Structure formats: structure tokens, C-alpha cells
Amino acid sequence: MGFTASMMIASRIVMILLSLTIMVRCLRSMLRERYEPEVWAYLRTGRATLPITHWENILGRSRSADLRLDLPGVSRVHAVLSRSDRGVWTIYDIFSRGGVWVNGQRIGADGAELESGDVINLAGHNMRFQDTDQSKRERLEAARTSVGRRISPSLTLLELTVFQIFLLMQHAFSAAPEQLPDIALSFALLIILEWSCYNAMRIIGRSGFEVETLAFYLTTLGFSVAASSTPGDLYKQILLTIAAVLLFLLNGWWLRNLHRTAVMRIPIGLTALALLAVNVVFSDAVLGARNWLEFGGYSFQPSELVKVAYVYVGASTLDRLYRRRNLISFIAFSAICVVALALIGDFGTALIFFVTFLVISFMRSGSIATVFLAVAGAGMAGVMAVSVKPYIAQRFASWGHVWEDMYNTGYQQTRAMSAAASGGLFGKGAGAGWLKDIFAANTDMVFAMVCEELGLIIALCMVLAVLILAFFAVRSARQGRSSYYAIAACASMSMLLVQLSLNVFGSLDLLPFTGVTFPFVSRGGSSLIACWMMMAFIKGADTRKDASFAVRPGERMPNEEKEERA
Q1: What is the distance between the alpha carbons of residues 545 and 510, in angstroms, rounded to a whole number?
Q2: Taking a C-beta distance cutoff of 8 angstroms, is the pair 506, 487 a contact?
Q3: Residue 42 contacts by C-beta under 8 Å, 6 or more apart in sequence?
Q4: Which of 20, 117, 235, 426 has the fewest Cβ atoms surrounding its Cβ within 10 A?
Q5: Does the structure show a pLDDT above 80 at 8?
Q6: Residue 157: what pLDDT?
Q7: How large is the C-alpha radius of gyration of the chain?
Q8: What pairs with residue 295 in β-bridges?
Q9: Could you give the residue ranges of the DSSP H alpha helices within 425-482?
Q10: The whole model's pTM is what?
Q11: What is the pLDDT of residues 443-475, one digit of tens each?
Q12: Do residues 306 and 272 make contact, with C-beta atoms less than 8 angstroms apart?
């Protein structure tokens, strides 16, 4: 017993050190490395030469403009200069006072395509547009530093593999003998999957792997939760994880072509609405909510897949930046999604969609008024929802008072807080907790379950992994090639952050208990697939050399689209 206890304590300490090391290495690689901008073209004015480092650029006097032109008569937001993923540049006048001319011709509402050397006139000020040819772009790209040179992604992944082996060792001490082969095989397949994904990235020339490493770290904790609570479902869990990673790769490949992405936004949006309609009509209520659909003995949650479609559709701005009338269709789409979620009683997911709507609408329009109007409307809708759905009001009534009724409305949260406190900093060991036997412990209260079994430090690393991804998405948004990638990355992380907050703070009674899952960790295949697919949006926003799914400089000639049409 003494040797076994010592091994368990040693494994917990090693796992904590490995978790902290993985977080620090990913954080340094993703957020501390010097930003090296991509240069796609130049705008030459009488005073200076301005490099164009994005595919969609706001031109104007505003400090937030991508190309700031502090010239008399130029509007704060004067024009948009955009590049398609096939290399065609177009300029749009966005309601400026002084107008936009190209080679002496005033452009209309549909904008005008640009050739290298064209003269652009903004409110009487001439400037020359200069595209970069393929050889120039290749020279600029060669001067940038490939990701992974300073901090090896393979070493970080190796540390994750060692973490998984020690986690498996802990389950070996606590699991029943007949369950151990299933647990060991599932962890082995997970390790094979992550190294296969890493090698696949290397084959296609991508050396950045931090986003995937953090996602696999969280997925590993999800495997631990499943091994503790439902070991019989581990084979299903590994199959769902394989499917999720394949869909992540497929989504990343799809996002390489922004023209195709934009064309498909309407069919994908209609498919999302059809899924919600089927959910509203055919689902059965469980504990007041109708989230699940069942087919052939298998169940899935349509709202999780709709999350991916919502981000996909909402981010499709491309040449429509700052054109508020184009927000109307997105607002209608958002309203239908939220109403459908309210009808099935999934108010936690409705809140996630609403916050994401605020992020997308602000990034698309730059209008604070739009955000305030949406918040006011949501407040009124929230009051109506509480009056129509009594169990929602009951959750708000018990918020902050769970210990006053610990055998009824506060049953789950009081158990979750007690289990989290009993785990301490180092935990009781994987599979050794008692919270796993409480209803929804492996979904709605998974943070407390991880605290109990693996300790507070690893539970906080679990939260930190999502926060690192969020900070990385924001940093990438400021530096991103296209507004699509920037908006999609920020929207995805807003979904995951709100989801995390509702799960963690709800289980600890710091927020009303809404019953949403923790990204990647909570048991549930639909949620896992949606989280992995949203990682493709974050990966697509990565502007570091050889890190992103997005098209690399030099893959297409600047005027290839025009040549194909000719």
C-alpha cells in the first residue's frame, strides 16, 4: 500500500508539472513570438508608402483604420480595399463624403477592380496602388520566421503524451480489472490519433501545432472523465474523437477557398435552420429542455452543430464590411436561431448564441448602437422567457441560495462544490472520486469532477487552455489576412468562453445553473465535434508562417482569377 500510495502521489505531481509546462510552452509560442506581418500590396501616397497587410482594409482618418489617411476631406471610414483569395483587388466607397475615383472614374456601389499601378483618388487626394508579384511575395515570405523554430511543437506534444501515460496509470489503480483493457486501448488510440494529426500537418507543410495540442489536452481530460464515469462508452468516445479531428481537417481545407466559403453560406444557413426546426418538432422534453434527437438508438444535439454553421454564416463578410444593410439577413438568422433554442428550452445555448451575435455584429458593422439595441431586445426577451418558463425562474431564484435547499434545487451544485473542495490542489486520483455517481457530473458539473479527481491546479490548466486559445484568436484577429478568418476566430472563442463560464461558474453557484457543457471535456459527441470544428476557424486566422490553413503567399498568381475567366 505504501508503494502504491507513493506512486499515486508522484504521478499527480508529475501530471501537474507537465500540464503547467504544456500551457507555458503553448503560451510562449502563440503569444510571445514577434509578429511578422504579411505584405500583400502597397499604397503609395505623396508622403509615404503604406504596406497593405490584410485582405480587407478600411481606409480613412479613424485611428482604427487599417490604412490611416489623415488628409483633409477624407472621411473617418472612407473606403474598403479588399483582396479575394485568388488575388483580385477591389475598392469600395462606403458612404464617404468626398467620393472614390479610380483612374479618373468615380466608382459606384459595386466598387471597382484594381490593377497594379492604378491611381486611386480619395476626396481629391491621389495615391497609387502597387500589387506585389509572385516573386516579390516569395521574397517577403522567405524573410519571415517559420513557426516552431523557437519552441518545438513535437516536444510539447511529447510532453502531452507523457501526461496521458501518467493519467492512464492513475486509472489503472482505480478502475475495475475488466474495465482496464478498454481504458488502456482508448488512451493508446488517442495518442496514435494526435501523432497522426501532427504528421499530417507536417506533410502539408504546417509546422504550427499549438492549437491542436491544447485541443488534444482538453480532449484527454474528457477521456479521463469518461473513463471514470462511463468506461463502457470509451470506444464510442474514441470513434467520435476520430470523426471530430477529421471534420476539423476537412473544415480547415474547406476554408482555404474563401470564394467557395462565401457561396456556401446560404445553403449552410438553411441547413442549420432545418436542423433546429426538426429539433423543435420532434424532440422530447427532458428536465424541461428538448435538446436531443434520437435516431436508431443514437442521440445527438443539433444546437451544437448549428454553432459551427452560425459562425460560418456570421463571419461571411468579405466585401461587405461596414455595410449595415447586409446585417439585416444575419440579424434575422440569429433571431430565428435564438427563438428556436428558446422553444426547446435550451436557454444556456441561446445565451451563447446571443453573445456571439454581439461579437459578430460589432466586428461586421463597427456600430456600438447595434450592440446596445440588441442588448435591449435581449433583456426584454429574457423577462418574457422567465415569465413563460417557470423552471428558468426557479433556477434564478435558487442562484446564490443552493445551500438553503441542498436536497432539492441545490442538490447538484452543493455536491459539486463539496467534491471540488475535497480534491484540493492535487486531487484524489483519476477515477477515485465520488461525484461521478451524481447525475450530470460528467457534463454540467465536469469542472468540479476534474477538481475532485485531478486537483484544482489541473482544473485551472483546463480553463487556462481555453483562455490561451481566446487570447490567440484576438491577437490573430488584429493581424489576420481576411476579415472572415478574424471574425470566425473571435466568434468561435466567444462561444467557447461563454460556454466555459456558464459551466464553471454555474456549477459553483457563481452564476445561475444553465446546464451547458465544458468545451472538449464534458461527455457528449455533438459538443466534441462542434468544438473541434471551431478550432479550424482559429487555425485559419493564424498568420504565422507555415501555421495556417489559409492560402499561403505564392500559391496563386495575383491575377489568376482574371486569367481563368478570360
Answers
A1: 42
A2: no
A3: 49, 50, 51, 52, 129, 130, 132
A4: 117
A5: no
A6: 95
A7: 25
A8: 298
A9: 446-454, 456-479
A10: 0.88
A11: 888 999 999 999 999 999 999 999 999 999 988
A12: yes
Per the model's pLDDT, the better-predicted residue between 45 and 391 turns out to be 45
In order of start, what are the domains of the chain with their CATH numbers?
41-131 (2.60.200.20), 260-540 (no CATH)
Cell numbers 507537465: residue: 18
User: What secondary structure, in 3-state letters, does 301-341 show?
Assistant: CHHHHHHHHHHHHHCCCHHHCCCHHHHHHHHHHHHHHHHHH
Sole residue written with cell 476520430: 242
Give, in order, the Cα–Cα distances in Å from 337 to each of 25, 332, 341, 406. Answer: 39, 9, 6, 35
Grid coordinates given for 190 = 488517442
DSSP codes joined into one string, 500-563? HHHHHHHHTTSS----PPPTTTSS-HHHHHHHHHHHHHHHHT--SBTT-SSPPTTSS-TTHHHH
Name residue, grid cell 509546422: 207
Residues 371 and 355: their CA atoms lie apart, in Å, by 10
- Give the Cα separation of 515 and 91 in Å (integer): 47
User: Please, are residues 120 and 127 in contact by the beta-carbon 8 Å criterion?
Assistant: yes
Amino acid at 94: I
Q: Are 163 and 187 in contact (CB under 8 A)?
A: no
Residues 258, 561: contact at Cβ < 8 Å? no
